[in-house]
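ligand=1-O-alpha-D-glucopyranosyl-D-fructose
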Amino acid sequence: MELSWFKKGTIYQIYPRSFNDSNGDGIGDLRGIIEKLDYLQSLNVDILWLSPIFSSPNDDNGYDISDYRAIMPEFGTMEDFDDLLQKTHDKGMRLVLDLVANHCSDEHMWFEEAKKSKNNPYRDYFHWSKPSADGGPPNNWKSFFGGSAWEYDSVSGEYYLHLFTRKQPDLNWKNPKVREEMYDAMRFWLDKGVDGFRMDVIPLISKQNGYPDAPDVGFRKIIEDVYANGPRLHEYLKEMNEKVISHYDAFSLAEGVGINHENANLYIDYDRKELDMLYHFDILECVIVNGKFEESSPFDLINLKQIYKRWRDAVHEKGWLANAMGNHDFARMVSRFGDDKEYWSASAKMLLIMQATQNGTLNIYQGDEIGMTNIILESVDEVNDVQSLNFYNENLETKRYSNESALEMINKEGRDNARTPIQWNDEVNGGFSKANPWLKVNPNYKEINVAKQDNDSNSILNFYRNLLKIRKQNDVFVYGDFEELEFNNSSLYVYKKVLSDEEIIVLLNFKNVKEKVDVSEKISKTKILINNYDGLDIDGKYVHLKPYQGVILKLEK
Ligand code: TEU
Ligand code: CA
């Protein structure tokens, strides 16, 4: 097994807009991140991943890039970036950027040129198609953010493809010039010393020939079968690896939209030399049936265990996964999978124990280390996220739900939940900014903030610090073989990890009541390595776990 720095390292995702505002304009920025590097180092994380920091009109908060080699002025300057990179490295951490290669902004020079005429040299940088016979869009493809994926261009009488918003035209990867442009942009950052890329919706870059209609199946299935995994995808990924990534000590992390456990190895099998790792959507979407703001299913622990198992079995020794339960696209982890009220602290810690002991690179999203929770937006005027707004506006027309229900759904699942400013202290705006922030601060900042938890040895924050440190010292967390115990237990997740003579046993209670399990024999020669409560209640042959209790036991030699 190849032991690379990115396997053992913990990734911490920063959403720069919401992280820390250094100049008082209400928007987080690069200097703001520099100010917090000591804090980040104190977390014992190793790799910082920045959501897009490039020039952008911010239709989708930076995921619509208008210049791949320029820093968004709101975030700072290139000097600020160079300084951030240098200081991150000085502290022994790595920095990775977000590569949005599937689409750019409609305000990118390429698109501005392309729409001038059918003969423009940039025309073929994008996907254009004639209207269908009735004058409508060329096919039935839907955008991820609602409505048709095609937008009419009156100048040429053709439609262009945008799988996301109409301000995010999809790039045509069939065009070798597009590929070279993207590789050059990657080299530009890698030459500066950047340590890799998280690759936004990378499975979507190759489109089906002739743009055939999608079958009438759920949206998730359409993504897998039609939008992702296109005919030339792996050729492009190999080329990207061969021409760019392989020349640097840098990794590629795919956002695994549309990747399932059956085709995952095509992306990450070491021998194929395409991508280094991926994070899939099965955990992130385990309660989502077809798509966000639609029907959802209740959380089911056995289902979660099955997902982890089938991915473990599928990629075992062939490739590597990253593990995430939250990011800027989903509601807050503790609100979705834990209990953000009575057992807030215990459940946030328990969820970390689970992720830190699963196979794969641990991926943490900003704010989860202090247990930040979902926010309640009081009216649609407070909503920022384009996905949520599109859903709301579409619903105004279809009237499928009442406006109140639509807002409730946004509050439950919407992306703004994860994007509220980081709560640094109990001062105005949670210490994020002196000015009115671009997105409302969660009013619970007086109770939940970094400063308060910094001084509390029992806090979620100090639990993260401690667990991440222990993880670094115990290779079994990362490389151990996973052995499931009590698989059919729907309240408790119990497993063992073994690496030669190192062994840990993990006991996790996913219920808000006490649960018992008979593992006394197995744990007789162990000592507690980490525990989110004081003490472990062992009575005869049973171990009793408190609500959301999580414990890691280590076999004593
Ligand atoms: O996300 C792609 C993606 O699949 C998400 O749109 C996801 O389906 C959705 O948020 C969950 O309901 C990436 C970025 O992470 C996201 O922020 C961007 O909006 C999107 O690509 C377009 O670049
Ligand atoms: Ca700022």
